[in-house]
Amino acid sequence: MKRQIFTAEHDAFRETVRAFLAKEVLPHYEQWERDGIVSRAAWRAAGRQGLLGLAVPEEYGGGGEPDFRYAAVLAEEFTRAGAAGLAVGLHNDIVGPYLTSLATDEQKRRWLPGFCSGETITAIAMTEPGAGSDLQAVRTSAEDRGDHWVLNGAKTFISNGILADLVVVVAKTTPEGGAKGLSLLVVERGAEGFERGRNLDKIGQKAQDTAELFFQDVRVPKENLLGELNGAFGHLMTNLAQERMAIAVSGIAAAEHLLEITTQYVKEREAFGRPLARLQHIRFEIAEMATECAVTRTFIDRCIVDHSNGELDAVHASMAKWWATELQKRVADRCLQLHGGYGYMSEYPVARAFVDGRIQTIYGGTTEIMKEIIGRSLLG
Prior knowledge:
It is a single chain. By secondary structure, the chain is of the alpha+beta class. It has 11 helices and 10 strands. The protein has helices spanning about 10-25, 30-35, 40-50, 70-80, 90-100, 105-115, 230-270, 280-310, 315-340, 350-355, 365-380; strands at about 120-125, 140-145, 150-160, 165-170, 180-190, 195-200, 210-220, 225, 270, 275. The strands form 3 sheets. A 4-stranded mixed sheet has the order 1-4-5-8, with helices on one face. Strands 2-3-7-6 form a 4-stranded antiparallel sheet, with no helix packed on it. Strands 9-10 form a two-stranded antiparallel sheet. β2 (about 140-145) and β3 form a beta hairpin. It is globular and about 80 Å long. The mean pLDDT is about 95.
């Protein structure tokens, strides 16, 4: 089925993204995988190409284009290229909205130009060693000292944790407030007492630096409070729908790409004197995956349009996230199986997609949390 949600401008942007990936990312990606981190030069190249800060107003160096369909194009092409390491989606779609919607004019002037140029790489620090989806369990705290906060605590599994120049930290500013006593504090590179732990060794997405962060008596200026004091919970709930949509978009794009390369593989690979594609079981496997992808694509595209129009709610974003990522996981497993022994070899795209994509049902809210959100909306 031909997709109907994109215009000629979106198609032109897609070609720009593909050209960028071919020139600035794919020739270096194997080295980044070995290094466990991408080059800062690639971030600056993305900035020069206009791929950072798509929704940031033009006065700060951004694209001035809030249409989420551009972000969807970016996510789809990075996914098809297998280039999860250069986390522009995290930068644009997850951290970006906090800066554009919550920052003061002074904060925007300080942070957004570098955000758009690639000179300032960003991260958001929510997860802790003892707290994931349960925000009430956050232990990182900030004590009010008049003209500054004193921040103490630890975060883990922080994407862009090594490279980040600016980290949005979820911290407890009112101890007795529970989830309602949390605030967002921006910690900048070089702050005394801010330390980065090891670059965590993951099973996939090796080029994407993921770190532990430690805050010991970090002095955070009062002007680095982002949004309302004790308002982090509301801010997080507002922006999580877009985060989950971005993950859903990459989920269905990954499933479609895996189906595409596996369909070609079974046409070429022979067993018992004939192509695998001649075997009924193989045809049924491909037919099932193609149908599942087509149905999912229709729903995700509807969600993309709704989100672009400001009409997508948290429940449908949760539906999109859990369904698309669970489909991605199933398709990756089945496609690897259809590749046989070659599917287990790292040089085959299906192998990398299998391990890179496994995190999709976990970060941004696990599948179980998504079902809880949906169930609660229906049953109270």
